[in-house]
Each structure stands twice: as structure tokens, then as C-alpha cells.
User: Which sequence fits this backbone?
């Protein structure tokens, strides 16, 4: 594992001396713009599509808003902070036809490069600069005097400056306060997607829904089932965030700990083949291809899956519990 780098070890000149275009002004785009500016990066362009709902916010924050084509013509560094599924389309229709030769490309997720959705020409630096966490946290951690852990990687180094730009960009996000580490597009892409699919989102929701259904089938009221399989997740997640898994176990009842240690092994056995299949699917690029194809067809599959998930019986129980909580506040 690489050693951590901190703020004092990093020269910010590679980003302060260049014009940076941020493609997109969502969670990451806004946080990157505000943090970089607070670190003294003066030449920032925010590039938005025509009719973008984010224009007003970017202008209110004092940024110069331009089209994607103009950003591609003017910037020395283009940081692609738009939704992953749109990268291919943005690259092919807006950036590639207008780009300034030698321009560096920065990505904050390994997705588009590792799965071959974008194949940049040899004259540009292709850099991963991932502040690990949701976009809003890049700004909130910075405002609280800290930063998120950052990972950098270089896919192409045409200028000989790619590594210096990567480190400077992450330092400009505030990651130098938490630690900046070397990684790669491949490592970041798989870790991020496996984490969200198998554990943090897909896995966690599957366990919650299955637990809820089993309890209701055993005659437990949906209200009680919801509290014990969904609502209390927050308390456990907070404990893990603060103390790690071992520390969480130390903070809960011995009854819960004894039972959980007993069943963990069986649950892991059951999900192992599913997780292995996810690793294969993601690594082969099949997930990325399915998702981009769905985006290009109007997100039909996503909309259908979202609608079906919204009809699950635990949603009604959840609304009741949250409503009761709101009435007592
Ligand atoms: N490193 C990490 O740990 C981490 C964590 C989360 C996310 N990410 C990455 O951060 C990137 C952005 O995520 P986010 O959470 O900031 O997304 P977001 O809040 O949804 O913002 C997406 C932005 O992309 C723009 N956009 C979408 N489609 C576009 C198109 N066809 N043409 C032009 N602009 C388009 C949107 O424009 P409008 O404003 O006009 O709608 C919006 O400004 C993604 O690559 C994601 O994977 C990385």
C-alpha cells in the first residue's frame, strides 16, 4: 500500500497555473469548484448543457458558466463531473470534437476509462482524482476544517505532469488534510461499484427487505418488522462509522453480538457466489455496458426497477414510522 501524502508536501501550482473546466455542477461539481477556488485556483469555468437547472446556482456562486464546447476549447484541464452514464455521449459529441490538443482529462471515478467508454487520444493526460465520498461531503468536510481521503491514478501521462496535476487537484479539494494515496482507475472503479452494489446499497437493501418479509410472514406487524430490519440500520451504521465493526460489536448488547457472530458465517456462505458474480460482471465491463445502454434508451429499465421497488410493503410501514417521528419532534 502506498504512503499517505499531506497538504504541506504538495505543490498546488499545477492547478493554480492552469484553466480548469468543471463539466457538471452537481454534488461533486459544486464542491470541487468551491474548494479549488478557496485554495487559490482562479481560472475555473463551469460547463453546463443547454437549459441546465444548475446554471442559476453556479452563477450565484460566482462562477463563469460556459457551454461544454467552449470549455473544451479553452481549458487546460477538463474535470468530468457529470453523471457516469453520460460520459460517453459528452465525450463523443461535445469534448472530443472541440478539445484543445494536449488538454488533461480528470475523472473522479474510474468507470468511463476502465470500462472503455471513453478512449482519449494519446496527447492528453488521463488522470483519476477521486475524493472518496458523496460530492456534498467534499465541501462539508472542507468547511469543517477537514477533507475526504483522496486517491489518484494515471492512465496516460502525455505531458510528464499527470502525477503532479493529480496530487495538486486532490490537494485543492482538501484531500491533503486527510491523506492522498496512489491508486488506479481499475482499482477505484471495481471497489466503488462492488461496494455500492454488493454491500452499501444493493446488499443492505436486499437484507432489509428479506428480513422484513420473513418477520411479516412469521406474524410480526409491519410496523415492528420495519423498525427492527430497516429503521435501526442508522444506529448500527453510525456505530460502525465511529468505531469500526469490532467497536460496534463492543457497543451493542451481548445477546445481539452472540447471535450475530453465530449467523455471520452462514450469511457470507450464501452471498459469496453472488458477490463473485458481481466482481466478474463489473470487471468484464458488462455492468457498465448495460447501464450506458439503458441510459441511451431513456432509462427504461431503471424506471421500471425503481417503480417496482417503491411498491414494496415496507415503504408504507416506513412512512408511518417516519410520520410518527416527525409528530414528536
Ligand atoms: N469518488 C467518489 O467517491 C465518488 C462518489 C460519488 C460520485 N462520484 C462521481 O462523481 C461524478 C458526478 O457525481 P455527482 O454525485 O456529482 O452527480 P450529480 O449530482 O447527479 O451531478 C451530475 C451533473 O452532471 C450533469 N450532467 C448529467 N448528464 C449530462 C449531460 N448529458 N450533459 C451535460 N451534463 C450532464 C448534470 O447536469 P444538470 O445540472 O444540467 O442536470 C449535473 O450537473 C460521477 O462520475 C460519479 O461517479 C465519485
Assistant:
Amino acid at each position: 500500500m502506498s504512503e499517505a501524502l499531506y497538504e504541506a508536501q504538495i505543490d498546488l501550482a499545477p492547478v493554480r497555473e492552469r484553466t480548469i473546466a468543471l463539466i457538471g455542477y452537481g454534488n461533486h461539481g459544486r464542491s470541487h469548484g468551491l474548494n479549488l477556488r478557496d485554495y487559490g485556483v482562479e481560472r475555473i469555468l463551469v460547463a453546463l448543457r443547454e437549459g441546465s437547472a444548475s446554471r442559476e446556482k453556479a452563477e450565484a456562486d460566482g462562477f463563469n458558466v460556459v457551454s461544454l464546447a467552449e470549455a473544451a476549447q479553452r481549458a487546460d484541464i477538463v474535470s468530468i463531473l457529470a453523471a457516469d452514464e453520460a460520459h460517453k455521449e459528452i465525450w463523443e459529441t461535445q469534448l472530443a470534437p472541440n478539445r484543445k490538443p494536449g488538454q488533461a482529462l480528470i475523472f473522479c471515478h474510474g468507470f468511463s476509462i476502465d470500462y472503455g467508454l471513453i478512449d482519449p487520444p494519446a496527447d492528453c493526460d488521463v488522470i483519476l482524482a477521486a475524493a472518496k465520498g458523496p460530492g456534498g461531503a467534499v465541501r462539508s468536510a472542507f468547511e469543517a476544517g477537514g477533507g475526504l481521503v483522496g486517491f489518484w491514478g494515471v492512465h496516460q501521462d502525455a505531458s510528464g505532469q499527470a502525477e503532479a496535476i493529480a496530487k495538486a487537484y486532490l490537494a485543492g479539494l482538501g484531500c491533503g488534510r486527510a491523506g492522498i494515496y496512489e491508486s488506479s482507475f481499475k482499482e477505484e472503479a471495481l471497489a466503488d461499484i462492488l461496494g455500492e452494489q454488493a454491500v452499501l446499497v444493493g446488499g443492505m437493501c436486499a437484507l432489509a427487505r428479506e428480513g422484513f418479509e420473513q418477520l411479516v410472514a412469521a406474524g410480526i406487524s409491519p410496523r415492528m418488522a420495519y423498525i427492527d430490519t430497516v429503521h435501526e440500520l442508522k444506529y448500527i451504521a453510525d456505530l460502525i462509522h465511529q468505531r469500526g465493526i469490532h467497536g460496534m460489536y463492543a457497543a451493542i448488547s451481548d445477546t445481539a453480538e452472540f447471535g450475530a457472530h453465530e449467523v455471520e458465517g452462514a450469511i457470507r456462505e450464501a452471498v459469496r457466489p453472488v458477490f463473485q458474480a458481481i466482481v466478474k460482471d463489473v470487471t468484464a465491463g458488462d455492468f457498465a455496458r448495460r447501464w450506458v445502454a439503458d441510459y441511451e434508451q431513456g432509462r427504461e429499465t431503471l424506471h421500471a426497477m425503481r417503480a417496482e421497488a417503491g411498491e414494496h410493503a415496507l415503504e408504507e410501514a416506513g412512512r408511518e414510522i417516519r410520520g410518527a417521528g416527525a409528530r414528536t419532534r
About this structure: The chain has two domains: 7-183, 192-328. Residues 254-283 form the longest helix (30 residues). The two ends are 47 Å apart (CA to CA). The domain at 7-183 is CATH 3.40.50.720 (Rossmann fold).
